[in-house]
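Example record

One chain of 294 residues, shown exactly as stored in the release files.
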Amino acid sequence: MESEGNVVEDSSTCVYLVTFLALGVLVLSVLYLIYTKRRLRKAWRRESSGGGSGGGAMLVVHCPGPATHTPCVSSFVMKLRTFLRMAYIPYVLDHTEPMGPRGLCPWVSWEGEVLTDSQLIINRLAATNDAWNLNRQLSETERAVARAFAVMVDEYLCWCLREWRIKADNGRSLAEDGGLSWYQRLLIPAYVLLRRWTLWEQGIGRHTHTQVQQSTRNVLHSLSHFLGDKPFLMGDEATEVDCSVFGQLASIVYNYTRSPYHSIITVEYPNLLQYVERVKARYWPDWDTCLLHS
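Predicted structure tokens for this chain:
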């Protein structure tokens, strides 16, 4: 009996020791991750303020890496990068830390500062240099219309697309097009569950997929009708709203090929497909080289 008690006691001691060591490794890993992130952000601030080896200030876009069919699976990354190309603002990419300090993607390091949220970044850049203001030729009324369309696609259409990706497609498109590593693919089911809760809290997840699909069709109809045969949404030249619209529509055309929205664009509203191809040809001539495994 005494020997059995010693065995039990030794086993308990081993369990406690293993648990303690595991917790220690976890704590050290977290501390190392925090230290690494802080060191990287200091380096990015130095580079973006002109203190790096290049000697000049550079805008650094922090975002996920390239996807199979688009330069990035995030429509908001596509929105920001399209704006930078339209405004002829040079930038470099960093994929080591895609989520910013506020948990948003994309974010940028610029002139020693950290800027988050694609629209806030665009607003800041446009206010800094008038040559970067893509809306400078628009009247106040035209700016109001453009802003309304931007909000419609950024704050409404994007949620409709997320509803299909998470509820109808169960995250399959992420596994196929997101350029994820094998261990990230293993986390997709957990991500889908978390996003389902997010969709419910936002409100779009409380509707049936049929209702959301009709809402999406209405948005695409509005875009198609307003665009008509114009080269860009507001006329002959691209403006800021085209960055938002292109970001969302390009996702449908290239990343949502199984969704009903792909056929709505390609069959019912071909002018939207032509629009996507037009923006891509003008501002993304290197599109193929920006894709995963290119």
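Notes: Residues 32-36, 51-55 have pLDDT under 50 and may be disordered.
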